[in-house]
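Sequence, structure tokens reproduced for reference:
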Amino acid sequence: MRKRLLVMSFAVIAMITTGTPALAIRGGTEAPAPYSFSGSLQRPDSPREDGHTCGVTLVAPSWAVTAGHCTKNNPSLAQVGRPKNWTVRLGTTDAGSGGEVIEVERFITYSPYPVHEGDIGLLKLKKPAKTKPVALPSARPADGTKTRILGWGMTCDRRAPECYPKKLREADTVVQPASACDGIYADRELCVGALDGSVAATNMDSGGPGLVRDGGRWVIAGVVSGAGGDDRPVMYTDVHYFKGWIDDVVTGRLNPPDTPVPNLEGAASLGGCSASVVRTGKTKNNDPALLLTNGHCVPERPAPGQTLEDVAMKLTVTIGDRQGYLQAKAQTTRLVSATMTGTDTALFELDQTYAQLKAKGVKVFTLSGRSAKPGERVDIISSGNGNRFACTIDAVVPHLREEGYTQDNAYRYDPECGPSHGGSGSPIVLRDGVTIVGVHSTGNDSGEQCTANNPCEVAADGTVSAHQGARYGQQVKHLAAGAPAPKPGRPQPQAAPRRLNDATIATSSA
């Protein structure tokens, strides 16, 4: 599968890395001087201190081009929208200082399916840049054309400060035949880099330019889209293919309306899963806040029959506002409890109190002590899917099995309810908008019985059935009484695993 060269921030904040250790612009060196038209897209949901997420290139005084998946990577998944606190920094070799910093007023993505239809997007700046834009190409570059690539991509294959370069890097390479890149859309993409991948763009170089010479000037031939395989060149979106669309947007001939977005207030992200900040009947305003998600979202999943308790664990959490933009960041400090046996839930303690999060405007949900009933209407609020699903509880399934795990009294939603992969851990909320009665967990993708991503239902009489397309959630009423908090200043021992029954639930991320 194609790998986009971007650390997915907020909606899917899990790292997407190449299979081998990476160097920023692998095979490159630090750029001795800035490129006035080239810069960094900087967002508050970036894992980096300097805010860098993607490369950008100025193509008109008030417009910069980047990869489509860089503009669309907000939880609402809007194709056109007005971002919150996005900026571009142009004309510097340092992603964290210098150059010209301009706020982004609007983003316009070419397609809602950027990889399949065109991975390109435009950023409208709130004021014209002082510098001169780069030239657009008059033709597609031929195979073998010398190309200079730029970026602030990662210097190693883990999300850590030492892997984020401050200085812009560059390398000279060539346009390769399309056959050298696995999964390329040859009509609208370029294959750029060394054949063995030794000179190529890497993670967080997405959107950065591939430049070619036209006489005495630079021309932007492509923008980084994604890698088609390990030790391979990288796919770049062919700017010439989309030149007409760029011209239409920049001149105002094409001015699409903003995409309507659902209410995503309170949707949180933890790794590749969705989550929510919750409180119980025992919590107080000055207590550390609790975060709810699935047990299968814990980095080391509980084994069948196991409950993990009081485990020190530091993970990054992002929490969104109504439009899905970053409202607050937090860190988990410990895993309070997690199990995939009988249900699929995990409860984390955060490094901030309810009072502190409330001061930042974060929405906090309440865990219910009751189950939802068949026929009851609920909302599933998913940061990973960028959607708020209006659903009905279709049935309460006695047992659900998947890949050797079992859950009890699982919710099955109505057939029109569509949370999918990335939606794991999303809260199932009553129509009051506050009360959580469950957490989304899994779904049957292909109709198989009891395999990964294909849970099967087990009736009270032992009859086994599979329902392709069905989606399932877990109950949380066992958490409503609240987990005991550790006493300050005292180390908390890790409890021995408790056997609840033979099995656990889905290991999939539905």
